[in-house]
Structure formats: structure tokens, C-alpha cells
């Protein structure tokens, strides 16, 4: 998945549900569970920036 190629809504459909945890516009952070692991994902201007396992 390339940077700036997926919107929050598209990511939510692929890996969701995502839950918002922080927002400082234009950036937003969400958490979600993937394969039993808690992960965080960041977006800028509503577009994917990257994720980390928490």
C-alpha cells in the first residue's frame, strides 16, 4: 500500500473497523486490530501515511 494512495474510508473497508484516537488537522490517527494485534495508522489530509504495531 503506497503512501497517499488510500483514504481513511478505503482503509476502514480493508482493515477496519478503525477507531479515531487523535486528530490535529490535517493529521489523524486511528487504532485497529489486525491478526490479533493492536495497530495504529496515520493519515494526512485524509490519505494514508503509514502504520505501526502498538
**Count of beta strands:** 4
SS field, number of helical segments: 1
Percent helix, as a range, is 10-25%
Regions with pLDDT < 50 over 5+ consecutive residues?
A: none
Radius of gyration: 10 Å
Report on the biggest sheet.
Answer: 4 strands, antiparallel
Shape label = globular
- How do the SSEs run, as a string of H and E? HEEEE
Beta-sheet strand percentage? over 45%
Strand order of the largest sheet: 1-2-3-4
Q: State the separation between the terminal residues, measured CA to CA.
A: 19 Å
- Strand pairing plus helix content: what structural class? mainly beta
Q: Mean pLDDT, rounded to whole units? A: 93
What is the structure about, briefly put?
This protein is mostly beta strands. 15% of the residues lie in helices and 54% in strands. Strands 1-2-3-4 form a four-stranded antiparallel beta sheet, covered by helices on one side.
Structural features, described:
It is a single chain. The chain is mainly beta and 54 residues long. It is 15% helix and 54% strand. The protein has one helix and four strands; from the N terminus they run αββββ. The chain has one helix at 8-15, and strands spanning 19-24, 27-34, 37-44, 47-53. A four-stranded antiparallel sheet has the order 1-2-3-4, covered by helices on one side. A hairpin with a 2-residue loop joins strand 3 and strand 4 (47-53). 9% of the residues are buried. The model has no long low-confidence stretch (mean pLDDT 93).
Structural topology:
Blueprint: H1 8-15, E1 19-24, E2 27-34, E3 37-44, E4 47-53
Antiparallel strand pairs: 1-2, 2-3, 3-4
Amino acid at each position: 500500500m503506497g503512501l497517499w494512495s488510500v483514504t481513511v474510508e478505503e482503509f476502514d473497508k480493508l482493515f477496519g473497523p478503525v477507531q479515531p484516537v487523535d486528530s490535529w488537522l490535517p493529521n489523524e490517527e486511528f487504532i485497529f486490530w489486525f491478526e490479533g494485534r493492536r495497530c495504529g495508522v496515520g493519515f494526512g489530509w485524509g490519505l494514508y501515511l503509514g502504520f505501526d504495531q502498538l
